[in-house]
Amino acid sequence: MKDPVIRVSASFEERLTQFETEEAALEECKNLDVTSALPKAVQTMRDVLQLSSFFTTGEDEVRQWTIRKGTKAPQAAGVIHTDFEKTFIQLIVYDYETLREEGDEAGVRAKGKILTKGKDYVVPDGSICLFKAGAAKS
User: Fold this and answer.
1) Would you list the DSSP string of 15-50?
2) Are 50 and 68 a contacting pair, CB within 8 Å?
3) Is 128 helix (H, G, I), strand (E, B) or coil?
4) Is the alpha carbon torsion for 46, 50, 51, 52 positive or negative?
5) Does domain 51-133 have CATH number 3.40.50.150?
6) Cα–Cα distance between 121 and 12 in angstroms, integer?
7) Integer Cα distance of 59 and 119 in angstroms
């Protein structure tokens, strides 16, 4: 496999950060008939490094966690806190795209698309996860 090469103009990317709004930066790109190379650079890096993400949600926070592709549920839980890996019980999981389609978690649940998985489950990219763990032993 050849190493990917992405042309990036650091000065142009820096210039885009100076606009007050994202819309203004997009308008500048449109006027110059170019696009930012950063999204492609980030996606290429994730692909080459075999990275994926899962999300956890709370009442006032959604958080993204980065893992290697092929990571099993207990090891993914360990990214959040090492005790979660040691005391892993199960994973409640659903897909972000399904959430977008259904609108909210209740819609996902009504469609029967919330899954309960165990220790051998490989966490797919874009999953929304709730890890169940036991009490840590002292």
Assistant:
1) HHTTSSSHHHHHHHHHHHT---SHHHHHHHHHHHTT
2) yes
3) strand
4) positive
5) no
6) 43
7) 26
pLDDT tens digits for 61-118? 999 999 999 999 999 999 999 999 999 999 999 999 998 999 888 899 999 999 999 9
Over residues 10-44, the pLDDT tens digits come to: 999 999 999 999 999 999 999 999 999 999 999 99
Kindly state the tokens that stand for 42.
């980030």
| pTM score, whole prediction | 0.79
- Which residue bears the tokens 């966490």? 123
Structure tokens at 33: 């008939």
DSSP letter (8 states) at residue 103: S
Torsion-angle region of 33 (φ positive above 0: left; ψ -120 to 50: alpha; else: beta) = left
Spatial CA neighbour of 131 closest among 65, 37, 44, 32: 65
Domain with CATH 3.10.20.30 in the chain: 51-133
